[in-house]
């Protein structure tokens, strides 16, 4: 059963899109990520134009994150004060990112920039997370887990001015740090069509020093509003949001997020980070290969009449 996507100007299998939405919803509930780092490339792979995939995916992230936040909120795993500070930076960043997206699209470079961004960010962050999670699992197996290690280690970044106390996260740090992280994630949300959780989650753990149990729900909380802002601006300025595609992804992802939240509660923190790192690296490698391996038919011209020359 196929459905026509008016903005993407193509037909897709409705069950394929629903299945992709469910899968990404499960990831959102488990890892606290919007799932865009996986779903946006999948949309590339089935032929959805990059600008449409990015613009539409931001809308789907909103519904996925709302569903996940509700589940974590009931467990008391959301630091709303930290989420609000991250959100302020995210709104500014996503607004700037949409403007940059429009500029790059005008220059004809947006497709290359999107895919290169995925390769760089997914490769670096995935590798760092994988190394850390392997070390954590090795410490656990050797019986050294938690010995000599603080909940978090302070560095010069925590000594910046304008300090705030975040009681739920047991932190007293400069607000500039979460503001900067939120800004970066907001830019990524607009340029890459992601919630930014694959950057936000490790940054909250390793830079801010937040407990893993609070990170997931707090990450999803700020993603809701950042992605909503990016969706509105992408639709208004760039006309790249396909409402039919967004609704199909939304239906699947809301269902999947509920299952993911229950599954994530049963896994250890280092195992969660290891699984997320492996998926981040796999997606990054696939996009890199698509960029560097020449297609089988290098010169291919197609016309609306279906006649090629």
TrEMBL record:
Keyword Glycoprotein: no
Major place of residence: membrane
Membrane spanning residue stretches: 12-40, 85-104, 116-134, 171-192, 204-228, 240-260, 272-293
Keywords: Cell membrane, Membrane, Transmembrane, Transmembrane helix
Membrane topology: Multi-pass membrane protein
Listed GO CC annotations: plasma membrane
Subcellular location, record wording: Cell membrane; Membrane
Pfam families listed in its UniProt record: TauE
Family: Belongs to the 4-toluene sulfonate uptake permease (TSUP) (TC 2.A.102) family.
Protein name: Probable membrane transporter protein
């Amino acid at each position: 059963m196929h459905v026509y996507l008016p903005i993407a100007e193509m037909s897709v299998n409705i069950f394929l899109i629903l299945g992709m939405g469910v899968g990404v919803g499960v990831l959102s509930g488990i890892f606290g990520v919007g799932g865009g780092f996986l779903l946006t490339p999948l949309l590339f792979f089935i032929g959805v134009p990059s600008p449409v995939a990015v613009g539409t995916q931001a809308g789907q992230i909103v519904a996925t994150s709302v569903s996940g936040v509700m589940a974590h909120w009931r467990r008391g795993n959301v630091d709303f004060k930290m989420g609000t500070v991250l959100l302020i930076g995210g709104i500014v960043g996503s607004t700037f990112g949409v403007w940059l997206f429009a500029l790059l699209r005008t220059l004809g470079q947006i497709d290359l920039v999107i895919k290169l961004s995925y390769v760089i960010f997914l490769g670096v962050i995935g590798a760092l997370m994988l190394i850390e999670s392997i070390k954590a699992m090795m410490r656990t197996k050797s019986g050294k887990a938690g010995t000599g290690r603080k909940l978090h280690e302070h560095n010069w970044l925590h000594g910046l001015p304008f300090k705030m106390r975040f009681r739920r996260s047991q932190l007293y740090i400069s607000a500039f740090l979460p503001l900067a992280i939120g800004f970066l994630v907001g830019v990524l949300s607009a340029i890459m069509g992601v919630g930014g959780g694959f950057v936000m989650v490790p940054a909250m753990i390793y830079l801010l020093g937040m407990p893993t149990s609070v990170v997931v729900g707090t990450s999803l909380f700020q993603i809701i509003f950042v992605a909503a802002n990016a969706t509105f601006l992408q639709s208004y300025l760039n006309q790249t949001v396909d409402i039919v595609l967004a609704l199909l992804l939304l239906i699947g992802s809301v269902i999947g997020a509920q299952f993911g939240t229950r599954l994530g509660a049963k896994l250890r923190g280092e195992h969660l980070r290891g699984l997320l790192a492996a998926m981040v690296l796999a997606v990054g490698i696939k996009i890199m290969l698509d960029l560097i391996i020449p297609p089988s038919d290098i010169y291919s011209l197609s016309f609306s009449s279906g006649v090629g020359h």
